[in-house]
């Protein structure tokens, strides 16, 4: 996914991912977050996914859009478990054109397979104009 036109209010981008045990263990190694809920499976054999690992879903979209975040605020609503498909949608809420870039405010919502919100985020940042392909 890449941005193919100047960003506009209302643009939406979606990504889905299922985290596995290896993802949780590797993120624990990198972040140091090795709480028992992330290292010891529950009765169903699942690990709880670190909140900041879940937060990589909107950052994946941001990376695809060359969106340089300046501020991020997360609300972790429900736990995410390994083996659970998570869908994240980022919606551009405000776009202001500036010299050389677009000032962008966005909202992200991540949902589990049951359609329940598991994480919400507000993200402010910018998209450089030179990151958007010129019309041909």
Automatic annotation (TrEMBL):
Molecular function (Gene Ontology), one example: hydro-lyase activity
Gene3D superfamilies per the UniProt record, alphabetical: Hotdog Thioesterase
Top-rank lineage group of the source organism: Archaea
Signal sequence range: none
Domain called MaoC-like: residue spans: 7-99
Pfam families membership: MaoC_dehydratas
Protein name: MaoC/PaaZ C-terminal domain-containing protein
